[in-house]
Amino acid sequence: MIEVSDISVSLGKKKIVENASFNAEAAQFTVIVGPNGSGKTTLMRALSGDLPFTGRIAINGFAINRLKLWQMAAMRAILPQSTQLSFPFTVREIVKLGLISGRSGAARREAEDLPDEALALVDLAGFGGRFYQELSGGEQQRVQLARVLCQVWHPLLDGQPRFLFLDEPVSSLDIKHQLIIMQIARAFAKRGGGVIAILHDLNLTAMYADRVVVMHGGRIDSVGTPAEVLTDERIQRVYECALKVGALPATQVPFILPQSAAL
Amino acid sequence: MSYPVLIKSAAPRSALGGGKTRAQGDRSFLAKSVILMLCFVLVATIMFSLAAGASDASIVSLVGALFTGIDSPADALSLRDRIIIYDIRLPRVILGALIGASLAVSGAVMQGLFRNPLADPGIVGVSAGAGLGAVSMIVLGGTFLAPLIALFGFYALPLAAFFGALAFTLILYRVATRRGQTSIATMLLAGIALGAMAGAYMGVLVYIADDRQLRDLTFWGLGSLAGANWVKIAAAGPFIVSALLISPFLARGLNGLALGEAAASHLGIPVQRFKRIAIVVVAGATGASVAVSGGIGFVGVVVPHLLRLMIGPDHRYLLPAAALLGASLLLLADAVSRTIVAPSELPIGIVTAAVGAPFFLWILLRRRGILDL
Predict the structure, then answer these.
(1) What residues pair up with A59 in beta bridges, in sequence order?
(2) What GO biological process terms does the UniProt entry carry, in alphabetical order (chain B) (predicted)?
(3) A86 in contact with B at a CB cutoff of 8 Å?
(4) Most buried among A84, B65, B169, B330, using CB within 10 Å?
């Protein structure tokens, strides 16, 4: 479990996150939503150990500021929004970097094939020999996800759940790959790991999240199931936009919701 | 263990991980083969360098001499030839190989640290810092720095160069790197400023130097292996050998750092401590090289770049390969510098710059799109 108790994060003199508290359970998919500038990424950077904060953040009961980097690397893996490289790595070499921390949880023989399995999982089978820099933004993002999956391949290690932190994992993906990535996250949670993702797509959130954390102006507005949290009142207030939940568009306007894929 | 995926991907999954075929994009076998080949190349280059020169001491007699030793009665090798090989060519070859390896490895480490293929100690001012340290020691060694020379003996010069290089690397890193991201433009401009600063201070030191010091400075500044002797090897060797021995332990961290500082620390790499070690390694290798041979440019940028094209940027292979290829190339450049205007010789810095500078321009040309500032 990830416990966030009363944390505040400042960048320079400005307080970006104020008095945030929530729990993200293992075996659950927790999604953080909120408008631009509401502090989602800053909160995630604090969870990742990149930013100093006040308050307490704990993974499986261990306060993260007491953990060594290699210990944290065995407990959680983090997908950044985008990653630029200045050297000509192949896709497979990048994915293999996920094994640096040495605690994928896979047996030695299994680990040999792990990069290829992870690539197949993100629908990039056969891309191992391509150069990372030659891929599109969406493909690069999926390569990074494959790397991150290698780091915590088994959602449980020594009986303890492990976590995936995903910062806008579907932001540059087409709809098919958005769904694939969401299913990977869901499956990771089903097998006992925890997932925390920042998403902008409220439909995907409603479809896949077990719990939703709504951020607004650096504070946590509410935490709950999608049905509890995604209400007309809250969405209008937080996004400052007159939106209605579940309202259908006029009949001649096409709309495509991710839910239709599962039908 | 597999994930249940509702939406089937178009690509088949059957081609994965079967049998002994190497996976696509895995260049480790290629890299190991290239390293093995470079070992042979280096041995051949060393033999060639020992044999080539104004004297006709032959390779056959030379090998005999290596096995029998200098004190044994070896008819094949005259005393004159022994002196040429043991006191002139052998130290020169050893020093050349050490410096070539050190220039190439410090280039590769620095490029990995700054995540930038143009970060070479010679280009971004670190060599200038080492030079400033060395010149200070040569000129001021007779005055208030005299106690240092008394204390450290022939280590004083490489130590001074080391601290010069260390100071300049730290300044460069502080100026060019912000929140874990290095700005290419800032790095290169800071390098220009640091180079100019070192040049100005060196100018002042040259101005106050006496005739004997001026002669020392001139020989030192040409960038040459001509003065190689066992004392220089003893002075620079420990720095260079330590840097070369530490560098393989940096490989894993440099690979992780390619993803950025945050991602590297998420993988469990102690980034801050790692960066400090890398900076000391670069400063040690650059300082020692500059102290004994002056400025030999472009080896540090050309060698790692060529190797990345051949075997990829994985530092576990890149660093040893750079050491081997750097040593071989510098020995070849030295052979050229000794023979091209024989019986006189050209400073080796001129040879490496003549070949390396156009190569550097070629890299710039190829990477213009990425470098647009």
Answers:
(1) A2, A62
(2) siderophore-iron import into cell
(3) yes
(4) B330
Mark yes or no for CB contact A101/B267 under 8 Å.
Answer: yes
Contact A261 B6 (CB under 8 A): yes
Q: Give the SS3 label for residue A91.
A: helix
B85 vs chain A: nearest CA distance in angstroms? 42
Write out the E strands in chain A. Answer: 2-11, 14-24, 29-33, 54-59, 62-63, 76-79, 156-157, 160-161, 163-167, 194-198, 211-216, 219-224
Strands A163-167 and A76-79: parallel
Q: Which amino acid is at B63?
A: V
Closest approach of B59 to chain A, Cα-based (Å): 41
Q: Taking CB atoms and an 8 Å limit, are B115 and A83 in contact across chains?
A: no
Whether omega for the bond prior to residue B248 falls within 30 degrees of 0, making it cis, is no
Give the nearest chain A residue to B7 (CA atoms).
Answer: A180
CA A49/CA A58 separation, integer angstroms = 11
**Residue B86 CB: number of other CB atoms within 10 A?**
15
Tell if the CB–CB gap between B10 and A123 is shorter than 8 Å: yes
User: 10 Å Cβ neighbour count for A36?
Assistant: 7
Domain membership flag for residue B95: yes
A187 interface with B at CB cutoff 8 Å: yes
> H/E element holding A226?
helix A226-229
Task: For domain A2-85+156-262, give the CATH number.
Answer: 3.40.50.300
Residues A147-158 have pLDDT tens digits of: 999 999 999 998
Q: Do A116 and B16 touch (CB under 8 A)?
A: yes
Number of domains in chain B: 1
Could you tell me the CATH number of the domain that includes residue B140?
1.10.3470.10
**Touching check for A258 and chain B: CB below 8 Å?**
no
The residue extents of the domains of chain A are: 2-85+156-262
Global ipTM: 0.92
Domain of B300 in residue numbering reads as: 78-366
Helix (H, G, I), strand (E, B) or coil at A125: coil
Query: Is B173 within a domain?
Result: yes
How does pLDDT run across A66-80, given as a tens digit for each residue? 999 999 999 999 999
Please give the share of chain A, as a percent, with pLDDT higher than 90: 78
B373 near A CB under 8 A: no
pLDDT at residue B115, as a whole number: 87
pTM over 0.90: no
Number of Cβ within 10 Å of residue B265's Cβ equals 24
